[in-house]
Records
---
Amino acid sequence: MEQPAIGDAFGEMIRDAYAVRTGIGPRPLAGGRLPRPVIEVIERDDGLINGAPADHYLDEPDAWQPHDHRALRLCRGHVLDIGAGAGRIALELQRRGMAVTGLDTSPGAIEVARRRGLRDTVLSTVDGYARAAARYDTFLLLGNNLGLLEGPERAPVFLAALARLANPGARIVAQGADPYGTRDPVHVSYHERNRARGRLGGQLRLRLRYRLVASDWFDYLNCSVEELDELLRGTGWHLDAVDRKDRPYYLAVMERDR
Amino acid sequence: MEQPAIGDAFGEMIRDAYAVRTGIGPRPLAGGRLPRPVIEVIERDDGLINGAPADHYLDEPDAWQPHDHRALRLCRGHVLDIGAGAGRIALELQRRGMAVTGLDTSPGAIEVARRRGLRDTVLSTVDGYARAAARYDTFLLLGNNLGLLEGPERAPVFLAALARLANPGARIVAQGADPYGTRDPVHVSYHERNRARGRLGGQLRLRLRYRLVASDWFDYLNCSVEELDELLRGTGWHLDAVDRKDRPYYLAVMERDR
C-alpha cells in the first residue's frame, strides 16, 4: 500500500472546497459526474481518524459561531490574522474597512484567499514573518488556532515572534478549545497517554490528509484556560480577559506585560 | 504513530450514525458537547483517502436515488439483500410485505438493522450462508454492491454461492458504477496502474477507517456493463437487462442460464 505524498494537503482541500462552493474549476466528482462534498481528514498519532466537512472554512459571517463575531469586536488597529486559511475572517475585517493581513503557511489557502478578494496576504510562518518590518496591534487566532501554540516547547517561541511583530499595546485574540469536558474513552485515554509521555493532555499530534496528499505530522494544542495561563508565564504576555460563553470553546485576550 | 486496530469499522460507523440520527446512545461529540457528523473514511491502495457523510446508509425512501426505487420494482418472491448494512432497503421491502432477509458481514450493521425493526437477518458471507438450506428468488446488491464481485477471481465464486442459494428462475438485481467516465487524473492513472498489474481498471483495493478501527484491505469492483458481461461468462448467470438511466450508475438484472 502506497503512502500519501507529503504536501499542501490543507491548500488542496481548500482549493476543492472553493471550487465546489463556487461551481468554478475542476473538483472531485463521484463517478465523474456528481459533485461530492469536500471532507477534511485528520489522523491522530494513536490511530484515530476523523473526517469533517471542509465547507465551513468558506462560511460567510451569517454562518459563523457566535464567538467569532465577539472576537471581531475585540480587534483594533492593524490586524494580523494568523492561520487565515481561505480568508473567512480577514475578508470580513477588510469589508469593515480595517487594516488586516492574512498569514498562512499553505500556498493553496493563500491562493484561495486572494481569489476571494483578500488584498494583503503573507505566505509564511510567524517566525519567518517576524523578520519583516511589519508591526501589528492585534494578532487573531480564530478557528481553534490557539492550537498553533503547539505545546510548552513551541509556545514561548511562537509568542516571542508575535512580540517582535507587536506595536506597543498590542493584543492577541485567540480562540481555544478546552478538551477536558469529554467522557469519550477514546479521548480520555489519549489525554492520559499524552501526560504519561510528558505532554499536555490535549497536545494533539496530527496530520491532515486530502486525497493523495498528507501534511507532515504536527502538534496542535487544545488546552484549558488554566494551562494557557501557565504557558504564558515568562513569555512577556499575560491573560487579560477570557470569554467562556460558548464552552468548550473560549476566547482569550492576551496583552504584553508592562 | 500507531496503526488502527483491525475490526468492524463499518459497524462502528453505522452504530454512531444511528445514534446521531436518533439522538439515542453515546456518540462522537466535538469538544465533548457538540454533535459531529459521522464520516466514512475510505483509503485506497495508491494512498488516496476520501471521506463521505455516512448518514445516507440510514436514509428513508424519500431520500433515495431514483435507481433504488426502480430496483425494488424488479424484486419478486423471497429476497436476499446482500450487504444489507443498516437495513435501508430490506426494511422498505419488509414494510411492503415482502419476504426479505438482510445479510451482512458486519455485526454492528446487523445490530442496527435489527434495532430498526428488520426481522430476518444473517451475519455471514454469502459463501457461509450458501451452506444453509435457505433459497431465494431475488438477490439484491444495491448501494454499489455489485462491487462485492471484487474482480475476475472472486466473481465466479461469489456467483456460484448465489447459484446454490437460488430457487429456479431466481435473479440478481445489482447496482453498479461505471468508473470510466471520469477525467480526474487521480482516477485515470489509478485505472492504468491497475491494468498494468493485471487487474480490471476499476478493481479498487480499499479499506474503511472509522475512529480507532480499520477494516482489512479488500477488493471492490467498479466495472462497466461490458466488463460485467465478460465476468459472467461461464458462471451460469447472464445479463438479462440493464437500466442506465442514472449514469454512471446502472442496474443490472442477471438470470440463470437455461
---
Amino acid sequence: MKTHTDYLWFNTKARHEFVNITGEVARVVSESGVDDGMALVSAMHITAAVYVNDAESGLIADIEEWLSKIAPTRHPYRHHQTGEDNGYAHLWNLTLGHQVIVPITKGKLDLGPWEQVYYAEFDGRRKKRVIVKVMGR
Amino acid sequence: MKTHTDYLWFNTKARHEFVNITGEVARVVSESGVDDGMALVSAMHITAAVYVNDAESGLIADIEEWLSKIAPTRHPYRHHQTGEDNGYAHLWNLTLGHQVIVPITKGKLDLGPWEQVYYAEFDGRRKKRVIVKVMGR
Amino acid sequence: MKTHTDYLWFNTKARHEFVNITGEVARVVSESGVDDGMALVSAMHITAAVYVNDAESGLIADIEEWLSKIAPTRHPYRHHQTGEDNGYAHLWNLTLGHQVIVPITKGKLDLGPWEQVYYAEFDGRRKKRVIVKVMGR
C-alpha cells in the first residue's frame, strides 16, 4: 500500500476566483506511483471550495451568481461581529463542499468526459492551501 | 490491500429520476472481497448526483421540489448560450453532491438504519455512468 | 495496511445542536495507529450532518439561520404524510453533507488552521451515531 501527500498553494489576484486544478491533481497522482486507488483533494481553509464540474466559463459565472443569491455577500452575518466580512464565503464553502475524492485507475484520474476539478476561492488575495493525499496500490 | 472497480450504467426513461442503488453498491462490495474499508460511489457526469438519504417517495418529491426552488429549471443561465438547456442540472449536482463514501465493515455496507444510496439523474434519457471503487483489506 | 473503526454516540438535549467533534476524531485516529491515511467521519442518520468549518458561535448561528431560510422548518413537506415532522432536517443534511474525509499525516489530523469537524444535529433528543473509519499505513 502506498500513500503520497502534496500541497497546492494559491494566492489569487481577485477575491473570488475559480481555478481548474485537474492538471495539478493529475501531476500529484503521477508522482505518487499509485496505479489503483483514490486521491483526496481538500481545501485547508473554510472560505474556499473544491468541487468537480464543467470547465465552461458561462457555467462558472452561473455558479457564482447562484451562490450570491442563496447566500448574499452583503448580509449582516453575526460572524462579522468578530471583525470579519466573509460570512458568505463560509456558506459558499458549505454549499459547494470543501473536498472531493478522485478515483485512480491504471495510474490515471478516472474522471468522466466533462469532469474537471476546481478550486473555488471566495476570500482570496492571500496564501491558502489545498491538500492532495493519494492512497492506493 | 485490495482494490476493486466497477461501473454502473444508467439510461433513465425520464429526464429526472431518483434510483436507489444501494443493492448494486452492495453487490460490487461483495464481489471485491474487501472485508474492511471504503467504497467510493461517484457520478461520472456533472448533471447527476449521488447522495445518501431515505427511500421514501414523499421525501424524494420534496427533494426535487426543493432543488427546483433554489435553482429553477427555467432560469436563463449563461451556460445555455453554449446550446445546452441543463444549467439547473449542474447546480443540482453541486447542491446534492456527486459522490459518497460508504464504509465497509465485516464485508457489508456499514450504513445506518435509514441510509440508502441514491443516483439522482437530472438530465437523463441517455447513457451515463457511476464509478464504484472499493479499497480495503 | 491498517483499518480501524469506532462509533461516536450522540443524544443531544436540544432538537438542533452543533457539536465540535474534532477532539473525538483525533482520539480515534490516535487509537488506530495509522501514521498516514484518511479518516472517514460519516453520520449514520439522515437528519444530521457532518461538516468542516470554523468554531465560531456567531457563524454557527448564521449557518442555522441560513439553513432555515433555504429549507424552512415549517413547510408542509410531503414527507410529513408519513407522520414525521422533520422534512427540513433531511434537506439540511443534504445541504451540509453527511460526511467528510480528514487526511492523516504523521499520525495527526492534517487540518488547516481554522478547520474543525462538526456534528450538526437537526432532529435530536434521541440516540444517534457517527462512524469514524480510519484507513492507512
